[in-house]
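Colleagues,

For the teaching module next term, I've prepared a clean inverse folding example: a structure given as tokens, and then the sequence designed for it. I'd like students to try predicting residues themselves before seeing the answer, so please don't circulate the second half yet.
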């Protein structure tokens, strides 16, 4: 089966541009916007040669993994549009739950995930399985004119392979025992995106999105360490606020709101250095 949009996505006017291999789906989507594309365009590929993650980090996607980007043309404020990253996380989580049988994504001791979600969302833009990174989300924007900008919502998923030389645990659907290909996952993702986008409702439904995201949040209530501009802030992960900032309570009881940073859980969060 080749890449296809879900019927719900097609009915809502989304379009598809599929490739066997690309440099970067985000870069290609932004190029399409500069060429005049009206948006609601999914750019997908089974292989990505020069993708990017947060802070310019490389995000390679070997053949069989999913590299996808949704291009939207936005005429609202960028701050509100940035919360679509949380919509993307929810959509991917919903898609994974829909296509991966319940017996997979079990914990190492065979007991399963006792928290109720096999796939968790790590602030601001990762999807985890059993604490290991399986997917990343990257939003990039480009001004088109005085009133509009292009927003590329990149979603990369380790379907058949995961990177070995990274400083954090990683996994793939194949490693979890799931018999799923990139095309099947994308079909479910395009359907789940439409549903969550409707809930977001041009930003008016952000509180609902926030509550849904928190129900899947990794590390909620536990110790975290957040690296912010070279400094490390430690505390307990309390919530995300109405602007989707990461909120932690430090040792003094003060609530700290963090707009951007790298989050670490577990042993790293408890260590004296990170």
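(Answer key — instructors only)
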């Amino acid at each position: 089966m080749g890449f296809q949009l879900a019927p719900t996505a097609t009915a809502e006017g989304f379009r598809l541009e599929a490739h066997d291999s690309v440099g970067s789906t985000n870069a290609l989507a932004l190029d399409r916007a500069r060429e005049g594309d009206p948006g609601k365009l999914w750019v997908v590929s089974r292989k990505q040669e020069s993708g990017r993650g947060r802070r310019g980090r490389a995000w390679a996607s070997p053949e069989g993994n999913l590299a996808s980007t949704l291009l939207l043309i936005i005429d609202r404020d960028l701050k509100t549009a940035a919360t679509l990253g949380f919509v993307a996380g929810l959509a991917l989580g919903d898609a994974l739950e829909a296509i991966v049988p319940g017996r997979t994504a079990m914990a190492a001791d065979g007991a399963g995930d006792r928290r109720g979600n096999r796939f968790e969302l790590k602030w601001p833009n990762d999807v985890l399985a059993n604490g290991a990174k399986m997917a990343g989300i990257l939003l990039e924007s480009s001004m088109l004119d005085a009133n509009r900008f292009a927003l590329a919502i990149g979603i990369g998923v380790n379907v058949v392979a995961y990177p070995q030389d990274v400083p954090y645990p990683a996994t793939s659907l194949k490693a979890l025992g799931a018999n799923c290909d990139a095309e099947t996952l994308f079909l479910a993702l395009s359907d789940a995106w439409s549903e969550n986008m409707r809930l977001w409702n041009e930003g008016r439904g952000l509180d609902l999105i926030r509550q849904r995201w928190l129900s899947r949040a990794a590390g909620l209530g536990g110790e975290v360490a957040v690296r912010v501009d070279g400094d490390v802030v430690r505390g307990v992960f309390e919530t995300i606020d109405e602007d989707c900032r990461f909120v932690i309570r430090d040792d003094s009881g003060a609530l700290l709101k963090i707009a951007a940073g790298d989050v670490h859980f577990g042993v790293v969060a408890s260590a004296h250095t990170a």
